[in-house]
Amino acid sequence: MKILKNINFAILAVVLGLGLVVTQSAFTSVAKTDDTYWVFDSNDIDDAMTAESYINEESAPGCGSSGPLPCVIVTPSSVNTPVLFQLYLDDKYDVPADITADLSVEKRN
């Protein structure tokens, strides 16, 4: 009877241990890739489609009050050069107004 009790305890310990391992590995978070921030550095909306009108920043700056000009465009971390950013702009937007209409783009006066 004592041996049966020890075996049951061992089985329970193994089941609990496996349960703990499964639940811990099932809820691990996926590492988020870093974003790239492109800050608009012009006062002319017509420059919004030109990558040279943006400065690549490591973190998002404050944009102040909302206005008609784009402030920051957030891209995936793989869009990290002006050439790639220009391709991103050309692929995602047709005209400058599309950038300011995009709700994911922060705007400024």
Structure description:
The protein has 109 residues and is α+β, with helices and mostly antiparallel strands. The chain has two domains: 1-29; 35-108, no CATH class. The protein has helices at 2-26, 82-92, 96-101; strands spanning 35-40, 54-57, 69-76, 106-108. Strands 2-1-3-4 form a four-stranded antiparallel β-sheet. The longest helix has 25 residues, at 2-26. It is rod-shaped.
Please specify the SSE layout and strand pairing.
Blueprint (H helix, E strand, L loop, with lengths): L1 H25 L8 E6 L13 E4 L11 E8 L5 H11 L3 H6 L4 E3 L1
Antiparallel strand pairs: 1-2, 1-3, 3-4
Key traits:
single chain, 109 residues, alpha+beta, 39% helix, 19% strand, rod-shaped
Helix count equals: 3
**Which structural category fits the helices and strands?**
alpha+beta
The count of strands amounts to 4
The major beta sheet can be summarized as:
4 strands, antiparallel
Q: What's the average pLDDT?
A: 81
Over all CA atoms, what is the radius of gyration? 26 Å
Provide the number of structural domains: 2
Low-pLDDT parts are none
Shape: rod-shaped
What is the percentage of strand-forming residues?
15-25%
Terminal residue distance: 81 Å
Q: Portion of residues in helices?
A: 25-40%
Which strand order does the major sheet show? 2-1-3-4
Secondary-structure element series: HEEEHHE
